[in-house]
Amino acid sequence: MILELDCGNSFIKWRVISEDGSQRLFAGVVDSDSALFESLAAAPELRVSRCRLVSVRSDAETEQLVVRLRELLGVEAVCAQSASQVGMVRNGYEDFRRLGLDRWLAVLGAYHLGQRACLVVDLGTAVTADFISADGMHQGGFICPGLPLMRDQLSTHTRRIRYDRQVALAALQELEPGRSTAEAVERGCVLMLRGFVAEQLLQARARFPEGFEVFLTGGDADLVRDVVPGAQVVTDLVFVGLAIACPLS
Ligand SMILES: Nc1ncnc2c1ncn2[C@@H]1O[C@H](COP(=O)(O)OP(=O)(O)OP(=O)(O)O)[C@@H](O)[C@H]1O
Ligand SMILES: CC(C)(CO)[C@@H](O)C(=O)NCCC(=O)O
Ligand SMILES: [K+]
């Protein structure tokens, strides 16, 4: 079994796939290294033989996780590294090492699945958009705060924006002007995301008149999916790229 980890800024997405990669055996989302090991301990008949991971955390945090994987599971994790090119796909950053590895892997995954020009939007702690031309050139992208950061900033920097998490979930049943703080903030922030995605779509249309594929990923992808009819929501997009960047044989 192969353990795959996508270590984001707030959560670790993990999954266990079969040796040949054809089956997804276990999967989960956790908020800490220790929660990860608890989840793995609870997976019945888990036998991890190999491991690959991508991390946008600090080198020290990533190294600490690699050490614990070695100690607790006896596996040597292979970590995705920056590259200026993988296959046809070329990194468009001035300094390719600066492009977030989750973005780079999502770009690799999208181009592999789409086989033509692509727009990739990843909606997590941060929201990112990346453009790839039909011949595999990454043209750069955009970064902005994601939903959790927008909410937090509003409550941190105001006195009276306060509401209950449960109320917040109910507020997103529709997007009419809010009639409570929870509705006003939750819907306002979702509309920011949707506006961002709509703008990326306009840019992609202008850049790629021959047509393009849109990929949405990240925990909040469902909140914007209907902004882009025809978009593919690929929850595992980073893992698709991880398998390309870190082949294990
Ligand atoms: N099962 C889940 N656990 C945690 N968050 C979830 C879950 N399902 C949806 N979400 C949403 O996903 C968002 C977090 O996204 P995601 O897990 O893609 O990113 P992250 O690890 O926080 O950040 P990033 O990978 O961008 O650094 C939260 O805003 C939350 O609302
Ligand atoms: C933008 C995030 C936080 C998204 O997870 C990550 O890709 C990252 O830390 N990137 C480094 C900065 C950059 O991509 O330019
Ligand atoms: K991410």
Helix content: 25-40%
CATH architecture classification name of the largest domain: 2-Layer Sandwich
N- and C-termini, Cα separation: 13 Å
* Poorly predicted sequence stretches spanning 5 or more consecutive residues: none
Order of neighbouring strands in the sheet with most strands: 3-2-1-4-5
Enumerate the distinct ligands: adenosine-5'-triphosphate, pantothenoic acid, potassium ion
Instruction: Tell me the name of the CATH class of the largest domain.
Output: Alpha Beta
Largest sheet: 5 strands, mixed
How many helices? The count is 7
Strand-and-helix sequence, N→C? EEEHEHEEEHEEEHHHEEH
**Number of domain modules:** 2
Task: Work out the strand percent.
Answer: 15-25%
As a whole number of angstroms, the C-alpha radius of gyration is: 19 Å
CATH topology of the largest domain: Nucleotidyltransferase, domain 5
CATH superfamily of the largest domain: ATPase, nucleotide binding domain
Number of strands: 12
Mean pLDDT: 97
Organism: Ectopseudomonas guguanensis
Binding site for K(+): 122
Family: Belongs to the type III pantothenate kinase family.
Protein name: Type III pantothenate kinase
